[in-house]
Amino acid sequence: MTDTPDTDSTAQWTRTLAQARGLDRAYALNPEAMAAAMARGAASLGPLPDDFSSVTEPAVMFDAEKFGGST
Amino acid sequence: MSDLAYLTIAEAGRLIRARKLSPVEFTNALIARIAATDSVYHAYIAVTGDLAIAQAKVAEAEIMRGAWRSPMHGVPYATKDIFDVAGMPTTCHSKLRVGHRAAADATAIVKLREAGAVLLGKLALHEFATGGPTCELPWPAACNPWNVDLHPGGSSSGSGVAVAIGTAPGALGTDTGGSVRNPATCCGVVGMKPTYGTASRAGVFPLAFSLDHVGPLTRTVEDNAIMLQAIAGHDPADPASVLRPPADFTAALNAGVKGLRIGLIAHFYEEDMVVAPEQSAAIAAAADVLRRLGADVKPIRLSSLQRYTACGRTIHIAEAYAVHERDLQERPQDYAGITRRKLLPGAFVPAADYVKAQQLRAALCAEFAAAMRDLDAAITLSSLDMPCRIDDADAIARTYERQMRMPFNVTGTPAIAVPTGFTAADLPTAMQIVGRAFAEPMVYRIAQAYCEATGWCERHPSVKVAERERSMVDS
User: Does residue B57 have an active-site annotation?
Assistant: First the structure.
């Protein structure tokens, strides 16, 4: 057992996630930038306020008329 | 020549209306100045010289026969090259857009044409309004008018530079996380991000649809109000365009600030993040000026700067990625590296985080509205740092995290950047004046009182002229 990060598997994981999003070419251009993008995107929002809840808002009602549709 | 270069929109409009200044003469003078300076500053991607002269001649003929249209009739302006102009490429300063031709004018361009304004050309920006200065792109990056080795701010970099060096009295910019106010701050000019939906974004290449705003950059507050007046108003082609008629942005300009209640959002830069001493000292002095003019300036508290920034950043990168996903998948090599680094994180924002960020945004909007309920406006800094070197990519990346502009894209409320002085190195500092939704007249009123009292807007950089063009400027 070791505490040393498994860089090979991290790189493979990064590559797999990039491929899943169709970003193979961008990964090939700069694998390190892709790894940084994953970290930044996944952690972008950060901690939410203590009193934040995403279930307190009523659901938004789709209004076909407002969006230009017809019924 | 130099007199015409720094003629304001208001002064020029009055002289043109009185037939004491020819729009053609004014336009020719600015075209000559662009030719003389642009190899140094790189503000322009394209100069629409023939179109400008034709529009100026039409304006002149109309004015001579008494058909005056507006304070911008016969007055030249330029636009960030992210606005469509029919028949021209909208390059977005990107290799990906080479060969593009716009089929129609953006609504802001239409409105300015209807106001009688004269289009001088299209201006440099950060690639797709999100990259940064880099030599990887087909056009050079605009550089700071006060020191060409420094970053001019972005993403409306050419707009800030052109206005500061007197190659356009006003310019259009776009602001998704501060892209009008940042170059205004770094270039020492005035930049307004109006209330969301005030100026149409139809015909403007999008960055993040729920944060994108169109706004003007000018050398004076009055000019800014005049230019915003010309482009404001409902546009059914922009789903976010507000239905209410625009206010009169110049009506209260000279009403002063005596008796006004102004909040000071100091914790953004005193507690939430570390600030450069020059910026801190400048806003303290600005608050004192407003107090001397009769305003009651006192601290207010909002959520932390980091919370506003994280909320805006999450929405920004997710929406921007949606716009660019296909090109990032198919031709990522055609983006500059700095642009890819800014766009790719959006591929990895969890959907739940995007939804939560929009929910958090609603809470932050409510918080801001409550804080402003008993106030006429508030002030805070624009940038925490002074402009860094234009070739220092790491420092530039840091500046986009260390700013106080994104909170007002999150709230969608008006925010103007105005100069607050100059450092020992002759670099401009700036503050933001922010207001409630649709309170642009109040924001302009305070900005005008402050700028008139201090005179910072009247200071111009020492403009470098390319040697081979010097005779054109001197003549």
Answer: no
Q: Which amino acid is at B118?
A: V
Query: Cα–Cα distance between B12 and B349 in angstroms, integer?
Result: 49
Ranges in chain B, pLDDT < 50: 1-2, 470-475
A69 touches chain B (CB under 8 A): no
What is the distance in angstroms between the CA of the first residue and the CA of the last residue of chain A? 64
Beta bridge partners of residue B215, listed in sequence order: B173
CB burial of residue B261 (10 Å; 0-12, 13-18, 19+): middle
Q: Which of B210, B344, B401 to mutate to test the interface with A (most CBs of A within 10 A)?
A: B344
Residue B133 and residue B342: Cα distance in Å, rounded? 13
- pTM, whole model, 2 decimals? 0.95
On the question of pLDDT at A10 being above 90, the answer is no
Confidence (pLDDT) at A59: 63
Contact B293, B256 (CB under 8 A): yes
- pLDDT at residue B95, rounded to an integer: 97
pLDDT for B219 equals 98
Listed in sequence order, the residues at least 6 apart from B399 whose beta carbon sits closer than 8 Å to its beta carbon are: B151, B383, B385, B387, B388
Give contacts of A 3-62 with B, CB under 8 A: 17-18, 21-23, 25-26, 29-30, 33-34, 36-38, 40-42, 44-46, 48-49, 52, 54, 57
Name residue B418's beta-bridge partners.
B431
A3/chain B closest Cα distance in angstroms:
27
ipTM of the complex: 0.89
- Which residues, other chains included, contact B270 with Cβ-Cβ below 8 Å and sequence gap of 6+? B280
CA-based angle B215:B209:B326, to the nearest 5?
125
pLDDT for res B1: 42
Q: What residues of chain B have any CB closer than 8 angstroms to a CB in chain A?
A: 303, 306-307, 310-311, 313-314, 317, 325, 328-333, 337, 340-341, 344-350, 352-353, 355-357, 359-360, 362-363
pLDDT of residue A1 exceeding 80: no
Among B101, B82, B50, which Cα is nearest to B156's? B82
